[in-house]
Each structure stands twice: as structure tokens, then as C-alpha cells.
Amino acid sequence: MDILIYSPDGKTAAYETGLAEHLPQANIRGWQPGDTAPADYLVLWKPNAEVLQPRERLKAIFNLGAGVDGVLGTRGEGAHRLPAGVPLVRLEDAGMADQMAQYVSAAALRYFRRLDDFDAQQAQAQWKFQKPNRLSDFPIAVLGYGTLGAHVAKALKTFGFPVRAWSRSERQDDSGVALYHGDAGFDACVGGARILVNLLPLTPQTVDVLNANLFAKLAQGAFLINVARGAHLVEADLLVALESGQIAGATLDVFRTEPLPADHPFWHAPRVTVTPHISALTLRDETVAQIAGKIAALARGEAITGIVDLARGY
């Protein structure tokens, strides 16, 4: 079994070592320019066109992340680069779900408990009471109910928030989260929400989904938490909504250009919190174990989960 690993920075040694520990029988190598040799499996992140050229014996391509826009492109324009008939497999959790739930919960609780207001008062040396919010008046809408979205929604539910979640296709569980799906359910999910959490996959259909039209459906003075992809957000629309007060604050972990340019207005917007794409980091050991387990399953002729529907983009 031959496994080829690609990273745009060329740093594949740690993944080579980790996979070798799980799959000692495999021949594992890091990709170098000009490598057209056979491989049974590709493990990669943001690949170039050369590494995706048709390769003898190739059975599957494993993406080193949950989001596959680094392979398919922001609008799916890169899907044609994939070798025909070879499945693309995304990561499922790999240690990210707990981190994401912690990050989103911290941001939601900061807004609910008005900690930003108290920070502003501290800057003015003001000792002043702020009327507390009521949980019943703080519905949270979570866009995206996959592995990460479901974990986040359930975590928010434990704090007593009324939580709704939306997905493209119908989902069912006993979590107590109000579930919506499809075009018909979108407005019902987001309408009147005080906090909007975006965990959608980036597909041609979801580019620019966080826009003025959506913001207008939220409660006046709502809050935005974007932890999915920067291309989901129409940045100019958010700045206008912040200026008008329709959006009272935003926590942004992802951006159209990363690193965020030093002259970007988000850095200095008083009601925007910027973090450098750290809401849920891919944990190497968990990632390696998951990919190795799926490679072993495929080698035994077993089915695996996480195969990307290229038409949907996730």
C-alpha cells in the first residue's frame, strides 16, 4: 500500500510518522515536484493541480480538514481537477467539535451576559448596572447541522438558550434543538434570532449567505458568530448593519483574506471581535488516527463515512 501526503508548505514529516505508526505495512512518502508515481491513497491539504493528476491505483483522496473548499474551490470551480471516480473524504470532528463548542459558547455567553457592555464601562471607569437578559428572549440560530454544528447547538442548549438549527436536508434527533431544513425552513430558523452562528460548509450556494437580506431577518441588535468560512460573509453588509444597529456585535474567526490585512476595518470596529482562525484547530493525532482507520477499512473492502458529495460540495 502506497500513501502520498501533500501540504503546500512541504511539511509532511509529522503526518508520515503518524500514519506509519498506525499503518506499519504501508509505504508512505511526502510529495515532491515531479512525483507521478503510483499511490493507493492521497492525504492532502490545499493541493495544487500537479498532485491531483490521475495516478495509477488511486482509491481515495483524504482531505486534512472538515471543509473541502481548499480542494473544490470557493464556488466549486476546482472540482474538475479531481481524478474521475476517486472519492474525496473529509475529516469528521478529529478533535474539532469540542473546541468549536467552547469557542461559540464563550462568544454567546459574552453577548448574553453583556460583558462587552461592562468592558466599555470599565474603559470609562463607570460602575453601572446593566439590566440582565432573559434566556427566553435570546434564541440562537445555528446554520449547519453536521458534525460540528450539531455539537455546537447541543452545547448551547445546555445553557438554557432556545436553540434552532438549519440544514439543507432533513435531520432528526432527540436533542431538543428545533430543527429546520430546506428553503422553506430557512426563514423560520433565522427569523427573530438574537444570535446567529454560521457553521455552513462553503459551497456555491452558501457563498455570501451572510448578507444584508439575512441580517434584516434577525432581531434588532442581534449578534453574529462566524466560524465557518470568510467567503460566507458580505463584509460591507456587516459594516453597514453594525453602523445601523441591526447587528450589535460580531465575533469573526474566518475572513476572505487570511491573515486579515492590517488596514482592514474589522481590526478597529468597536463591536467586532477578531480571532485568527483558531476556533477549532485540527488535532494531528486525532486526524492521523481517523484517516488511518478509514484507509484500513477501505483496504478490507469496508464502507467508510465522510465521502464528499461533489455536487453539494460537502
UniProtKB/TrEMBL annotation:
InterPro entries, A to Z: D-isomer_DH_CS, D-isomer_DH_NAD-bd, NAD(P)-bd_dom_sf
Domain D-isomer specific 2-hydroxyacid dehydrogenase NAD-binding: 107-279
Recorded GO MF terms: NAD binding; oxidoreductase activity, acting on the CH-OH group of donors, NAD or NADP as acceptor
Keywords annotated in UniProt: NAD, Oxidoreductase, Pyruvate
Signal peptide region: none
Highest taxon in the source lineage: Bacteria
Official protein name in the record: Glyoxylate/hydroxypyruvate reductase A
Species per Swiss-Prot/TrEMBL record: Pandoraea captiosa
